[in-house]
Amino acid sequence: MKKKFLAIVSMAAMLLVGCQSNAERYGEPLIFTTGTTTGVFYSLGAGISTMWTNELEKRVASQASNGSIENLNLMRKGEANISFTTVNIAYEAYNGVGSFEGKQYEDVRILGNLYPNISHIIVKNDEKYNSIEDLKGTSFVFGAAGSATEVESRLVLEAHGIGEKDIKANYVGFTEATDLMRNGQV
């Protein structure tokens, strides 16, 4: 009973946020944009969509995307009702800065914090990589284009004096990044 109550409360909050400005766009199924198919957002969004559909009898369809930035852009265009994003990307959208310079999205609302989002930089077990600065001149995966991973990677590298011109940039998801690393391409 408690699980169903929480699901109903959170769904109501999502619907209220989604319906605030353009109620005519939000028929069924509700579109819940997530992230790349190999990331956490995708499987979590699929599970939540299934639960809401089964428990609340409200059709919710999860949809893969490139992640946080794309999700908010899809919501702003009315192509999604509910989305995952990270707090820094939501801040950028709401304030019209960073990735959303000149494209402010004031109608976005944060409904809950799901888990801490910790960024990792992974390198091969190689003596030449002892610090982030050692990545200068290498091939590096920023993450999928339009993802929070891309933005966060850029921020971390820039904080260590590494710009995009200093490395060979790749914009792919987690599976592709693993393949590139395995093949010695990054």
The main sheet orders its strands as 2-1-3
In what range is the share of β-strand residues?
Answer: 5-15%
Number of strands: 5
Q: What radius of gyration results from the CA coordinates?
A: 18 Å
CATH architecture of the largest domain: 3-Layer(aba) Sandwich
Helix content: 25-40%
Instruction: Indicate the mean pLDDT.
Output: 84
Q: Helix and strand string, N-terminal first?
A: HEHEHEHEHEH
Task: Write up this protein.
Helices cover 40% and strands 9% of the residues. By secondary structure, the protein is mainly alpha-helical. It starts with a helix and ends with a helix. The longest helix is centred in the first third of the chain and has 18 residues, at 2-19. It has a 3-stranded parallel sheet with strand order 2-1-3. The chain has helices at 2-19, 40-56, 68-76, 87-95, 148-159, 174-182; strands at residues 30-33, 60-63, 82-83, 139-141, 168-170. It has 2 domains: 2-100, Periplasmic binding protein-like II (D-Maltodextrin-Binding Protein, domain 2, 3-Layer(aba) Sandwich), CATH 3.40.190; 132-182, Periplasmic binding protein-like II (D-Maltodextrin-Binding Protein, domain 2, 3-Layer(aba) Sandwich). Helix 1 (2-19) packs across helix 2 (40-56).
